[in-house]
Amino acid sequence: MKIIACIKQVPDSEAKVRAEGGQISWGDAPLVINPFDEYAVEGALQQKEATGGTVTALCIGPESAKEALKHALAMGVDDAILVSDPALSNIDSVGAARILAAAIQKIGGVEMAVFGRQTLDNGSGLTPAQTARVLGWPMLGLAGQIKVDDGSASSPQGVQVERVIEEGRQIVKAKLPVVVSVVQSIGEPRYPSFMGIRKASKAEIPVWSLSDLGASVPAPLVTRTELMNPPSRESSVEIITGESPTEIAEKLADKILAEKVL
Question: What's the pTM?
Answer without folding.
Answer: 0.81
